[in-house]
Amino acid sequence: MALIVAFASAAWVLVDIGRHPQRMRVMAWVWPITALYAGPVAVWGYRRFGRPASPVSLREHGAEEPPPKPRWATTSVGVSHCGAGCTLGDIVAETAIFALGITIAGRALWAEFVGDYVLAVLLGLAFQYFAIAPMRGLGIRDGLIAAAKADLLSLTAFEVGLFAWMAFQALILFPGPHAIDASTPVYWFGMQIGMCLGFLTAYPVNAWLIRRGTKEAM
């Protein structure tokens, strides 16, 4: 049921973004991807902070700038931005590792850690680059350096929370070698829980990065 609710939430956000394009184009990906693990909470966040920032909503309300957000909301949107790259990387890596039967030291878990982190870094930095480079008017090299400074620590913190849950799930809850895998709904429900925990572990890091000006407030 949690997976169905998440997919429905992501689909709703995606359709609504089609009517309310985001000023920052990468957020058109961030909001629905966030809904894949946060479900209705992401829908609420999008309706409260994402849709009002769209040019369509600004014109409807005769405003030139989006309404100000409280600090916790600014930080949460920053975490969602970082988490979207991580989430997409995790989905791709987990699916590929399962399909190819890849293991390290006889366990898929270690391969998942490596694959998840590598793709999270690549996609997370790409997401951050397309947010930070246009805002600062940076070229490719400077934009990638700025993206790494802004997001590498953040996405690592996100993966720490996720990996802790993955280890708990694989080694404690379902210790058998083939108890659950990426072909089962239970596995992906567990990943939703892990991504929510990743959001929590990444939150203080994002708050610090935004406060010191390393990461742009969104």
SSE string: HHHHHHHH
For the largest beta-sheet, the strand count, sense and barrel status come to:
none
Question: How would the global form be characterised?
Answer: globular
Quickly give the structural class: mainly alpha
Roughly what is the average pLDDT, rounded to an integer? 88
**Which assembly state applies to the chains in this document?**
single chain
Number of helices: 8
Unreliable runs, pLDDT <50, ≥5 residues? none
State the distance separating the first and last CA atoms.
Answer: 32 Å
Instruction: Please give the radius of gyration in angstroms.
Output: 18 Å
How many beta-strand segments? 0
Instruction: Give the proportion of residues in helices.
Output: over 70%
Tell me what portion of residues adopts beta-strand conformation. under 5%
